[in-house]
Amino acid sequence: MTIQASNKLQVKDFITLGVLNAVFTVIFILLTVVVGIFPVTGIFAPAIAAIPLGVVFILLMIKVAKKGTLVVSGVLQAVILFLLSGSWTFVVAVISATLLGELIVGGSYKDFHRVTISYAVLICGYALGSFAPIVFFTESWRTASVASGYNASYVNAFTEILNGPILVGILAVSLLGALLGAMLGKKMLKKHFVKAGVILRNER
């Protein structure tokens, strides 16, 4: 009974999930705003944000380390993003990415390799949620963005830059950013969090 209970999310786990996912999402949005000042740099926002966010993600995964951690995280992040941006593509992409990530982790939340792959999938989900509408629904995205108050020349610059091959490149760079972020997270955990009892399983 004790082992079974320990594998289920408790109230304290939901609190941890709420706080760290809020931090994760806010950092992503802030970095996106800063990097997105120019369209040519804005397309790399998910990849750039993935590096510092790796610390938050790795800490979140091993701090809670219970079944459903990724799925609950996906729902929380999607809700926050939808409330702040109103983008349904973020909701679909982020929740889908965390569902896939949950399958990849398979309950082994302290397995660095599996957690890293799930993080890469999540960041690619963020990239798709950000840019897929521009590539596949260009005119509706352009109209909605201008109506929301974005400068028309800025919006047009994004639509001119982005296309299918560029989106593939963005996903590749985002994947690299996620890998770097996971490595940074592991390094920071070893240096600062081991004394707190947060320990990653040894690499195989």
**Contiguous uncertain segments of 5+ residues:** 1-5
Which structural class fits the helix and strand makeup? Answer: mainly alpha
Number of helices: 10
- Biggest β-sheet: count, sense, barrel? none
DSSP strand tally: 0
How large, in whole angstroms, is the Cα Rg?
A: 18 Å
Shape: globular
C-alpha termini separation: 31 Å
Order of helices and strands: HHHHHHHHHH
Estimated helix fraction: over 70%
Q: Proportion of β residues?
A: under 5%
Tally the structural domains: 1
If you average the pLDDT, what whole number results?
85
Pfam family, one: Trep_Strep
InterPro entries: CHP02185_IM
Transmembrane segments: 14-37, 43-61, 116-137, 166-185
Keywords: Membrane, Transmembrane, Transmembrane helix
3D structure, described in words:
- The chain has helices at residues 2-6, 11-35, 39-42, 45-64, 69-85, 88-105, 112-136, 138-147, 152-161, 164-193.
- Residues 1-5 have low confidence and may be disordered.
- The longest helix is centred in the C-terminal third of the chain and has 30 residues, at 164-193.
- It has 204 residues and is an all-alpha fold.
- It is globular, with a radius of gyration of 18 Å.
- It has one domain.
- Helix 4 packs antiparallel against helix 7 (112-136) and helix 7 (112-136) packs antiparallel against helix 10.
- It is built from 10 helices and no strands.
- 37% of the residues are buried.
